[in-house]
């Protein structure tokens, strides 16, 4: 909780002193995002790994601090305005890591950041190729590391499709991208599940699907 208060004070200072065009500090903002994501993903806050009694005790006393800092990260991202493009594709990995935390409200609040990133890059270059390449690479790594689940796949699909379909220029390419990533996620999750299967044919079939 002490760290959370410190990070929030750091965030206030960034907004007040280092956001406008003349004083914007890329490295400071970068440090903030990496620090906040490291805080959110640390072992001691992953409540689903605790016994129900310990989880209830922590929630009762402190609430879910992951959700608190996650909402703060989301707000800080949107505060960046025209500076957002400077954080693409570097911030795709950390944001992905945050959205993969198995907390439904946190996921719903932070997955839309991906659409915002697509939009930013599209306005800048008329495509979102850098974002797409980065999320595919990082997703592979994260799912292999044990993160991600069926609920995440469903939320990712639903939230991003809704946003893309409302956008004049991203409706078609956005939908293609979302379907691609969801299909990849399906195959990666299957592959992860079957990795320990004794049946070599099943493993080989999943490997071929991923490839």
TrEMBL record:
A Gene Ontology BP annotation from the UniProt entry: myoblast fusion
Top-rank taxon: Eukaryota
Molecular-function GO term, any one: small GTPase binding
Domain Dedicator of cytokinesis TPR repeats region: 1-159
Pfam family, one: TPR_DOCK
Gene Ontology CC terms: cytoplasm; plasma membrane
Name of the protein in question: DOCK1 protein
UniProt source species: Geococcyx californianus (Greater roadrunner)
Gene name per UniProt: Dock1_1
């Amino acid at each position: 909780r002490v760290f959370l208060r410190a990070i929030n004070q750091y965030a206030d200072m960034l907004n007040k002193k280092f956001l406008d065009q003349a004083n914007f500090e890329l490295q400071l903002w970068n440090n903030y995002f990496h620090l906040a994501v490291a805080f959110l993903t640390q072992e001691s806050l992953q409540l689903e790994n605790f016994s129900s009694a310990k989880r209830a005790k922590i929630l009762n006393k402190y609430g879910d601090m992951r959700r608190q800092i996650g909402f703060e990260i989301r707000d800080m991202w949107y505060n960046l305005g025209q500076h957002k493009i400077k954080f693409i594709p570097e911030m795709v990995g950390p944001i992905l890591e945050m959205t993969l935390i198995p907390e439904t409200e946190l996921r719903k609040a932070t997955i839309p950041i991906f659409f915002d990133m697509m939009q930013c890059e599209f306005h800048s270059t008329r495509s979102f190729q850098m974002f797409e390449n980065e999320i595919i690479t990082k997703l592979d790594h994260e799912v292999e590391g044990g993160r991600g689940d069926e609920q995440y796949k469903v939320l990712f699909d639903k939230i991003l499709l809704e946003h893309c379909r409302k956008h004049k220029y991203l409706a078609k390419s956005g939908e293609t991208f979302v379907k691609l990533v969801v299909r990849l996620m399906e195959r990666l999750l299957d592959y992860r599940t079957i990795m320990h299967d004794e049946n070599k044919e099943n493993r080989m079939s999943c490997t071929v699907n991923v490839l």
